[in-house]
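agent> Task received from the user: take the single chain below, predict its 3D structure, and emit structure tokens. No templates, no multimer pairing.
agent> Plan: (1) validate residues, (2) run structure prediction, (3) serialize to tokens, (4) report one or two observations.
agent> Step 1 OK, no nonstandard residues flagged.
tool_call: predict_structure(input=
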Amino acid sequence: MSSVFIVIFGLAGFAFGWFVYSRFIAENIYRLDPNHVTPANRFNDAVDYVPTNKYVLWGAHFTAVAGAAPIVGPAIAVYWGWLPALLWVTLGSIFFAGVHDMGALWASNRHNARSMGALSEDVVGARTRALFMVVIFLLLLMVNAVFATIIAGQMVDIETSVVPAWAAIPVAIAVGVLIRSKINLFAISLIGVSILYFTIYVGTEFPVQTVDSWDGILLGPHGNWIIILFIYAGIASMLPVWLLLQPRDYINGAQLVIGLLVLYSSVFIVMPDITAPMINENLAEGTPPLFPILFVTIACGALSGFHGIVSSGTSSKQLNNEKDARFVGYLGALGEGALALITITAATGSLYAVSAVEWSSLYASFGDGGASAYIAGGAALITEGWGIPFTFSETMLAVMVVLFAGTTMDSGLRLQRYIIQEWGNIYSIGLLKNSYISTLAAVGCCLILAFGATNGQYPGDGGMLIWPIFGASNQILAALTLLVLSVYLMRLGRPSLYTLAPMIFIATMAFLASLWYLFDYYQSSNWLLLVLSIAVMGASIVVMLEAASVISKIRRSEDEPAADKAVEPAE
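)
tool_result: status=success, residues=571
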């Protein structure tokens, strides 16, 4: 069977999602109001609250939520077969992720751009706030630790990616200054992306070799890169969003769109066959079960609780018009789904493995593949389709992984700082209110996890050990966000089925997966991840019980309009 089938099926589904389903949700469920004054306009401080062009915000939001997860997750999950991964990415993006992301952005916008954790206090109750914030903080901790190890691995393995990855920073700052100066956006985008691709060429000509030069120095190549990445991310998280975070995300988003167009067009030019099985019946011993582990292996790219954090943490502070929530939130989710879709195509096509036998040798066990499968398969696809040299194509895709993971780290550390500062306000701890102290605390926690979870090969090698608990925690948080949205809609007297049904499904899958991994962590004596998993599950159970109590009261109440007024924030 041709890989074109995978592409057409997924893109047709995304088209239905954007033109039909998202419009229905936006107009009939969330009822986006263009006349609502957004927090970005009401509290404009030119630092965190910045009214932003919807195309720029889409790029910033898209790359902040994408990271490396929609590449790594699907490229691992195809081990069970390409069909389950394809169905979950397509249907999950349409009916789960888009509704979740747009809903979090809308609800936060209606509550002065408050985070989903803070919003849960207004919607569900005061007791849920602290526990919700703990879940969010732990998830951010895992996101930053995992992505730092992934970036470090790519910089060590693909040395040509180092120059363009770091050159993107001054390019982004220049773009931010020019956008601030009201220079033509299209011209800025064209010049910025051109420079970015030129740096990829420079990187292929001047690779930065750190394996030999850093061996034995401090923590070695991987460990040193992780330290450098967190130093950068800590500094970047304290800068005004318009100076680095927003333009970096935007220019990366433009680069991704071009990369996706090249990849998708290559599929139609080459029309490679699918060499992976539709359903893999020859699984290695010890392989996790397809149900429920598929739904936590592929989180970003189908549904991700991290998106709710970004939507309500940074994007809602930049939303210029409430109607833009559909473009930024739902289309951002579909963009990530498109990245996951092409990853499935690259990792299962005949240009990655010319035969089913070769594919089986490359995917010998669960956990094989990952970003390397996407980069190798995608680079071969581009070279075959467009005649672009393989080294350049490989570097381009590696830079794509590095830049997206890097922008997620920027946003993730900024959001961790917000949470720590919010704890400082709640518990009247003066030190935690300080942005420098809170950032140092966030970076310190991330470093402890990044180096604490290890396979024993080298410092910072435990990223993939964290991946399962990251995926499960991510989906638990997505369920909590959908739960808060459902309660909010009930209080407004609106239909909640479109958020409640996805919440029940993903909550069930995430909890079953968490239980499976709890047993696995216990058997392998991995106490750090065992404790983290128990903490996330325990806090989430309490929040869900609180929400269930509120839902029960709402359904018994005959005075829903009065309850509705209680959750509408004062303008």
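agent> Step 4: summary for the user.
The domain at 4-567 is CATH 1.20.1740.10 (Amino acid/polyamine transporter I).
agent> Done.
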